[in-house]
Amino acid sequence: MDNLPTARRQINMLSLREPEYRGDIDGLRAIAIISVVVFHAFPSLAPGGFVGVDIFFVISGYLISKIILSQTATGTFSFLEFYGRRIRRIFPALIVVLLFVLAVGNAVLLKPEFDQLTKHVVSSTFFAQNFSLLAEAGYFDRSSDMKPLLHLWSLSVEEQFYILFPILIVLLNATRLRAWMPLFLLALAIASFRWGHHVLKSSPDDAFYLPYLRAWELLAGALLTATEGRIKQILSLHHWLPHIVAAVGMGLILHVIYALNSTSPFPGRAALWPVLGAVCIIAAGKESIFNKRLLASRPFVLIGLISYPLYLWHWPILSYLRIIAGDTPPTTTRIVAVGLSMGVAYVTYRALERPLQGVTFRRHPSASSLALAISLCCIAAAATIGNAGFLDRYRPVALIGNTENFTFDGRFENDICRKTYPDIKSRFCNLAKERTPTVALIGDSHAMSFYDGLAPLVSAHGGNLLNIGGFSCMPVFDAPLHSHGYPFRTTECIGAINAALAEAVWNPHISTVVLAGRRFVNTLSDDQRTAVEKAFRTTFDRLKLANKRIIYVLDFPELPLDPHACLRSLPWVTPKCVVDASRPLALRQAQVDLIAKLASDYSDITIVDPFDVLCREGRCSVLDAASSLYIDDSHLSRDGAAFVAPLLADAIFSPSHGITGVADK
Predict the structure, then answer these.
(1) For 539-598, what is each residue's pLDDT tens digit?
(2) Which of 430, 478, 407 minimizes the C-alpha distance to 628?
(3) pLDDT tens, 114-139?
(4) How far is residue 23's CA from residue 18's CA, in Å, rounded to a whole number?
(5) Are strands 465-469 and 439-443 parallel, antiparallel or unpaired?
(6) What is the radius of gyration, based on Cα positions, of the chain?
(7) C-beta of residue 340 within 8 angstroms of C-beta of residue 66
(8) H-helix or E-strand containing 466?
(9) Global confidence as pTM
């Protein structure tokens, strides 16, 4: 009690510059960060825990807009001071985490991985990580849990919002439109929400990452600030109203945490519920029973206080564990990782955030802000140097090799093919030489995987290889399904594959057609199996009628681990880089059964099985000497394509080879 007057004086001083402290809001931060961390570490326990980020957006919009609106109303708002405060709040912990991520990445990541990481470091230092991730999004994008800085997209969205939002508020205030501020913010929020929901249907990545499509969530917090007085009047009509509103808010948040999952369309309308839930809890006030007794309790407040450093730390630690192990780490390991994240976050808060905010920054705010900004720029410079390869000599040799095996750059298409076939709208288009093709390789990305190895061998025999296809496209006329088993919602595959097969049928120079595709990822219904079989028979009949030799390549084994892990040479981690063949064999059994059934009616079709060279004695190798045969868990690398190519070339140029391997699989 002796320090109470001092504490009151501090609160009075702070009230001129920032909102009154509310422990229940720190408790709400705790709910948000707990849901995010549990989702990342144990997704089955909180399948919709990613909505914690949306709760953070609302809290941020509420607190930051309170500062901006109060200071613009009194004429004390300063852009320099505002952005300086953001720097002093965000940069210290961010700098430490970026240094950690860069240092660990330099020690354990392969060259292509490290190059991607350095780009993410640079984009994160300039708060543009959301745009970097959006540019990478696509069929062949690396898994999200293999990107240690993936989580910084949300920080980037938030900071981009605060570049424009203060300017907007100052302009509105200067034009004497302050009285209309709530309506203006509401209109902006509705426009952002509706636009984002519309974009979600056609481009979910845009809806997720673009700041103007997520702005409504921050605007919801800002709108709450702008209407707080009126909301308090309404809630004061009955003493139970605040308690009910808080309970409803928590109910909405808990509902979406367990009702949504990583496959749910998001954000769109699904994001409306955690946002409304957060708004309700904040609006209920610190005196509501739920807020006062639970959210403002010591454990929740403590977790809320470390929520920012915990958010920064937990994902890189979990991501690096996944990267090093090459698979999902054991439960015990993930529990230890979460505990470590909380410990490091607490140390960051106690040893870095509080001391710097309480001493250095308040005495020399401008100088400290400049120093932090320069430090962050230095990290970006270091990452740029690393990306340019100047640090490669200081990294383990095993991490520099296999660069070409771990990139899809240049594998999708070449200029010769696009020039020769400008009217075929396919995702893959490769032609070995600028002359008429003699062999056509048609199918999906698994078919495309063979091209780099097969093209030189076809050329060596005086031929010319053409590869045309698309993502998850079955190599048949009018395919009823993707290879994933999903009904078509687009004509992209049908258009591309039909055009490729038509070229093979009508081009007299193409004598051999190689069809290849991924296994059926999902179990086919009887109707689907019948439709697929009919499509294959139609395709085989049309190719045979055109006097084409047909080769069908069964799917190669897919891995239960990330092949990168097999090359890290870490003494304390020994991933199983020789895989039991039983599992990949079982996964593609439906494809083998279908083709075996067709083979009984098409005895002149040659069937090739990559298992014959990739697997021996019931085991499949990930590596050949020091080279990775895979680029990821389900696509062959360039060296992998070269490894399998002789088997395919033998089938193409040895007509007597016939049907191989199906009966034994």
Answers:
(1) 999 999 999 999 999 999 999 888 988 888 676 666 778 999 999 999 999 999 999 999
(2) 407
(3) 999 999 999 999 999 999 999 987 66
(4) 14
(5) parallel
(6) 29
(7) no
(8) strand 465-469
(9) 0.83
